[in-house]
Design goal:
The structure holds 2 protein chains of 2 kinds. Chain A is mostly helical. Chain A contains 13 helices and no strands. In chain B, 34% of the residues lie in helices and 24% in strands. Chain B has 10 helices and 9 strands. In chain B, the strands form 2 sheets. Chain B has a 6-stranded mixed beta sheet, with helices on both faces. In chain B, strands 2-1-4 form a 3-stranded antiparallel beta sheet, covered by helices on one side. Classes of the chains: A mainly alpha, B alpha/beta. The interface between A and B is medium-sized, with 25 and 28 residues.
Chain lengths: 281, 244
């Protein structure tokens, strides 16, 4: 039992990965809850693909440093978020097709840019690696988590108002868009922060899956945010252990664990689950 | 203290590339109770949104006098809101004060109490802790009126407040509108029920992209004006097949 659960975390790189994932698990899932209730789940897809070209450009300009790649990723993510937002507004109801177009393009562009450079392991970039979580990456994750939690605390009420009734906030405070932009900036930060441990393709998994599962645990925004954090923490620990013992990339292992919490919540969570609503049995 | 009048000077609004409202001039006097009437697509909602500054003017001017943005409350059509949002009735109502207190000020016990009182006023005393997703259309509209009570704005713009609500709810909400009118607030309401407009609203703005008439309801809604606005029935009210 000890060998299975505790011994892996005796290793330095596993402890760093765990600390990084805990930071992400505390910060990202509450953002995911807002993405879900604002019906913007697809936006997370767009961003995870959208940051890839930025990471590649960052690496090309300044080498394989977390800061350079992270900065490139944040710039690219913000650009994609703004472009996708503008396209969505212009095209009205056909928002999803525009977003699909943006992220397919971004992914292809990112893979081309990454492949053009020596020294970057595309698999690690896309799917993450616990071994790659060094002190710099850990500080970056912890910093992003701190900024995210503080930022979310500041925009919490306006964000709820804007999600429920966009016009009300725009009238009463005279600004509507600024809260949305601030929120999207936090989402981009969290997506980028996850890329070292989880990979760009998997980092939103820890943001979205616990958030999707959270609606089976609470009917308030705050309650769902708390539930999502707890589920993400569980998924992180389980995923890291699986990744260590079975030798699979960390990103997919953690996302599969998060998926497991979702399936369990969907089946037997206290609210609107199949068990409660009599959907099975 | 009565609010300042709202002056419109040749207001023209575009929506989706088309002119939605053209050349509306006139004013809503302080304390007036006006019905905004017209066929679907006549620009009624667009005009309300322009009055609160949510819709840009393509031409003309709107003079709001000394009114701040938080002094004008807009009740959107219920269909514009996300009724699945995970939030309790009390929180929706309490957030009505956000316009005056700012987005960060603590919502204290006094506001929570006021929210409870407002919910009781609209006939939902036991619903404070219920999520809005559990409400019927009429109950949700009552919650939005309770939020208006907390907003306490001198000017109220109501967009189809009685759409899809039953007679009891309509009566209760009309009572609130009447009380606000008696307090001297300026109220502009989008409505389709012309009998209700004639019974309750002293003034009417009849709009069909261009303003057809604006003044005392009886005159504004006379047959000639209704014909020009496209609001006259072309045949008696029954199914076409039954008539044949």
């Amino acid at each position: 039992m000890h060998d299975l659960l505790l011994a892996p975390f005796g290793l330095g790189f596993m402890r760093r990965a765990l600390a990084g994932c805990i930071a992400l698990s505390v910060a990202a899932p509450p953002l995911g809850v807002f993405l879900v209730i604002r019906r913007m789940s697809l936006m997370s897809d767009v961003l995870q693909h959208g940051v890839l070209p930025g990471l590649a450009v960052g690496a090309a300009v300044a080498g394989l440093s977390v800061w350079a790649m992270g900065l490139g990723g944040v710039v690219a993510g913000l650009a994609v978020a703004l472009i996708a937002g503008a396209l969505a507004r212009r095209t009205g109801a056909r928002e999803d097709s525009q977003l699909a177009g943006v992220y397919l393009l971004a992914l292809a562009l990112g893979v081309v840019l990454v492949s053009a450079q020596r020294g970057i392991d595309l698999t690690h970039l896309l799917f993450g690696s616990v071994l790659a979580v060094d002190d710099t990456a850990l500080f970056a994750m912890a910093g992003v988590a701190t900024v995210t939690l503080l930022g979310l605390a500041v925009i919490w009420r306006p964000l709820i108002l804007e999600s429920l009734d966009p016009g009300f906030l725009a009238i009463t405070t005279g600004r509507g868009a600024i809260w949305h932009l601030g929120f999207m900036a936090l989402v981009v930060l969290c997506v980028v922060a996850g890329f070292v441990a989880l990979g760009t393709l998997m980092s939103v998994g820890l943001m979205m899956l616990p958030a999707i599962a959270a609606r089976h645990w609470s009917n308030s925004v705050a309650g769902q945010a708390r539930a999502a954090v707890v589920l993400a923490l569980i998924a992180s620990v389980v995923g890291l252990l699986v990744s260590y013992h079975v030798d699979v990339p960390t990103g997919p292992a953690i996302v599969l664990s998060a998926g497991g919490t979702w399936v369990l919540s969907l089946l037997a969570g206290p609210r609107e689950s199949l068990l409660r609503s009599g959907g099975i049995g | 203290m009565p609010p300042p009048p709202l002056h419109l000077d040749q207001v023209t609004l575009r929506h989706g590339g088309h002119v939605a409202v053209q050349d509306v001039s006139g004013s809503f006097p302080p304390g007036s109770l006006t019905a905004l009437v017209g066929p679907n697509g006549a620009g009624k909602t667009t005009l309300l949104r322009a009055l609160v500054g949510l819709h840009p003017l393509a031409g003309g001017r709107i003079d709001r006098g000394s009114l701040a943005s938080a002094d004008i409350a807009l009740l959107p059509q219920a269909s514009q809101l996300d009724r699945q949002f995970p939030i309790t009735c009390r929180d929706v109502v309490a957030l009505g004060v956000a316009g005056r207190s700012g987005p960060f000020r603590r919502i204290g016990a006094a506001v929570q109490e006021a929210a409870r009182d407002a919910l009781a006023t609209v006939g939902l005393p036991d619903h404070a802790d219920r999520p809005i997703a559990a409400l019927s259309t009429g109950q949700f509209q009552r919650v939005l009126f309770a939020r208006l009570i907390l907003q306490d704005a001198p000017v109220l713009l109501l967009d189809e407040p009685f759409a899809a609500v039953d007679a009891t709810t309509e009566e209760l909400l009309l009572g609130l509108i009447d009380a606000w009118h008696a307090e001297g607030r300026t109220i502009i309401t989008v409505l389709h029920d012309l009998d209700l407009v004639r019974a309750v609203f002293p003034d009417t703005l009849l709009l069909a992209c261009t303003p057809i008439a604006w003044g005392p309801t009886d005159r504004a809604l006379n047959e000639a004006n209704r014909r020009r606005a496209g609001l006259l029935r072309t045949r008696p009210l029954r199914l076409p097949r039954a008539a044949a």
